[in-house]
Amino acid sequence: MDAPESPRQLLAQSISAGHRLIGQILLSEDYCLRHVDDAGRDDLEISTDPITAREIARYDEKGNYRPLKSAPNLRRGWLIQAGSMEGLEIALEFFYPSALGLWFSSIKDTLQPTPLRETLERQTGMYRVTQLLRDDQARELIHCHCNSAQGCLRSLLWEIAPGVPINSLPRDQLSLAKVGDDRIPLICREACNLLVAAARPIAKGNLPKKEES
Ligand code: SF4
């Protein structure tokens, strides 16, 4: 296989090689996407517009808003016939933002994960207080919000700080080494805004009592 020169080329090569699962989505060589649990169904609602992915990704099965697109609660019952590799790429960007670009960077060995401490150091205003989050609190938070069973399907490639590992998730979710042969990896390069927001009330509890607000 030639070294891919773009995320699109990487995607095309991978689908040809049988890597057709990304998150909860199954891809096919005829540029279709569907929920992996809908494989084999012939009663799916068909769309030929890849932008339909934006609406599908927005709400879960019960109609609740999905703030985190890589949460394991993608609704079922749809089929997108994207029509081209470009269409596939567009749809995937709505389902799993930046996933193809991050994967391409990791293949090219240019991916640079950002440790949690660095992400928190960047915070200003109401989120500056997250810098007070302790390592044990960070691990607990990550365990609750990022675990692939209920939280997020991405593999976390960052540490709490250089040399300070996360440790509160299964090893499989902390590297790409165990991503199955049929899978395209979903990478988390740095803590997302939702995780930082969730850290705030915990970190506020670390303020000296008179500074709490
Ligand atoms: S920090 Fe990464 S792994 Fe955790 S919820 Fe956010 S995107 Fe998912």
What do these coordinates show?
The protein is built from seven helices and seven strands; from the N terminus they run H-E-E-E-E-H-E-H-H-H-H-E-E-H. It is an alpha/beta fold. It folds into two domains: 7-107, Gyrase A, domain 2 (2-Layer Sandwich); 116-211, Alpha-Beta Plaits, CATH 3.30.70.2320. Strands 1-2-3-5-4 form a five-stranded mixed sheet, covered by helices on one side. Strands 6-7 form a two-stranded parallel ribbon. A hairpin with a 4-residue loop joins strand 2 (25-27) and strand 3. The longest helix is centred in the middle third of the chain and has 12 residues, at 135-146. 27% of the residues are buried. Iron/sulfur cluster is lined by residues 68, 70, 145-146, 151-152, 154, 156, 188, 191-192, 194-195.
List the helices and strands and how they pair.
Layout: H1 7-16, E1 21-22, E2 25-27, E3 32-35, E4 45-47, H2 52-58, E5 78-81, H3 85-95, H4 99-107, H5 116-121, H6 135-146, E6 155-156, E7 187-188, H7 193-204
Parallel strand pairs: 4-5, 6-7
Antiparallel strand pairs: 1-2, 2-3, 3-5
Helix pairs in contact: 1-4, 2-3, 6-7
The structure holds iron/sulfur cluster (SF4).
Iron/sulfur cluster (SF4) is lined by residues 68, 70, 145-146, 151-152, 154, 156, 188, 191-192, 194-195.
